[in-house]
Amino acid sequence: MSDSTANPFRSGMLMEHPADPCVLIIFGGTGDLAQRKLFPSLAHLVREGRLSEQTQFLCVSRKPLDEHGFRAEVIANARQLAPDSIPDETFAQKFSARIFTVTDAGEGGRFDRLKTRLTELASSGGPRNHLIYLSIPPTGYAPTIAALGAVGLSASDAGAWSRIIIEKPFGRDYASAEALNSAAAAVFKEEQIYRIDHYLGKETVQNILVLRLANTLFEPIWNHHYVDHVAITAAEALGVEERAQYYEESGALRDMIQNHLMQILAMIAMERPASLAAEAIRDEKRKVLESVRPFTEQDVPNIAVRAQYAAGAVAGKAVPGYLEEQGVKPNSRTETYAALKLHIDNWRWSGVPFYLRTGKRMPKRVTEVAIVFRKVPHMVFAQSPVDRLEQNVLAIRIQPNEGISLKFEAKLPGHALHVRPVEMDFRYGSSFGGRLSDAYERLLLDAMIGDQTLFARRDSVEEGWRIVQPVLNAWAHDANDALPQYVAGSWGPSEADVLLAARNHRWRKL
């Protein structure tokens, strides 16, 4: 069923394709991601009629799982975490009837019981198309993919298709990402592989191309002649919570910058694609990442900053420092804040710095792209008592309160010439009303449709790791100096301000 309000660039068309019926096979269906995001998203898609009536959901568990009890657990969690996804008991029964389970630990490197269960579902009228979702620890990706291939579940033919969604983190450095890509390519073709980055499913990220390409106002000035610098921020108010074990092995650079922020950078900086087809857009994103100026380990102190949060207060509540969090090593050197300064060496962006920052325990949760324009070339108000003029800023708010604002200068009413910055705001909620779809809803539907536009391609993933690898190497070798600290509830360490000060830039106040 089509939806006229859906994403306008799906498969290069101005309308959605109906999703083929399929069995969504979820590895890790009992885990946090599946319960918190995947099942509520699927419930919304079912409610809105976006999925075929024949589409089913099969949870693969290593340990025995009672199907009736699991269905009840899914409904209970969805009601708690996304109450509007399960409106009443009638829908709860309808939705849960689509959920099935199978116990298969992949003994001997094969998923024989899974294959048998799929055959049983198909013989009862279930779909033959398979969408496999790996919501499991990254160490399980390669063996799971190999075991799927061993029983033929990677095969697509004229009558049915098979696709796989792989969650992040996709590798932990360039070498491991390349190895994982090779392992996936040995079993699945590239057109079957969907490397998911939920940031790309957010409404405002998708709107970036529309903002640029559908408005004469912006595209002519989207270049180094008019843009002074670009700042991308992903701030979180939360600490590591229950994810200390994962975060100790990851850190802010791997967790956020290499994937989420690098993909947003590519969307912002890419050239106009020849069409809105998936591969045309992904080709241009790859070119951006290939054009990022290379740097060495020796350059890292001048282009990268890392830090850990110390004890402080967020939203008026006292919180511990990172080293005091449960599960964190007392001598940990894992960064909870990372900032990076990059340059894109092409004609459009020559000389324009791109600043990327992310951190935990910051004053609030916000993800934003700020395109800061150059100052006016001649100050005609020089002889008048005008207040300090600020630069124009186009701010794209990705979360929360998705929207776009444009800051410009205006004269205050009155006889005196007083100038102040004002903002024009567009907010999705107030402008369009209704509920904004969750990113996972869009991405799950895209995978069922077969549209890879909002998924990362192999070359882009590896380019992202190539860019940050010298930083990872330098920080791994720098094991003696104490990490800078920033007070929880602040916007990061002073060293990050110095990173911008060389060009007389400053982080935007959020």
The CATH class of the largest domain turns out to be Alpha Beta
Helix percent reads 25-40%
Largest sheet, spatial ordering of strands: 16-15-14-13-7-12-11-8-17
Report the total helices: 15
Shape: globular
Indicate the radius of gyration in whole angstroms.
24 Å
Count all strands and give the number: 17
Please give the oligomerization state of what you see: single chain
Mean pLDDT: 88
Rounded to the nearest angstrom, the distance between the terminal CA atoms is: 40 Å
Q: Characterize the largest beta sheet: strand count, sense, and whether it forms a barrel.
A: 9 strands, mixed
The helix-and-strand class reads alpha/beta
Number of domains as seen in the coordinates: 2
Low-confidence segments, given as residue ranges, are 1-15
- Per CATH, the architecture of the largest domain is 2-Layer Sandwich
CATH topology of the largest domain: Dihydrodipicolinate Reductase, domain 2
In percent terms, what proportion of residues is strand? 15-25%
CATH-level-4 superfamily name of the largest domain: Dihydrodipicolinate Reductase, domain 2
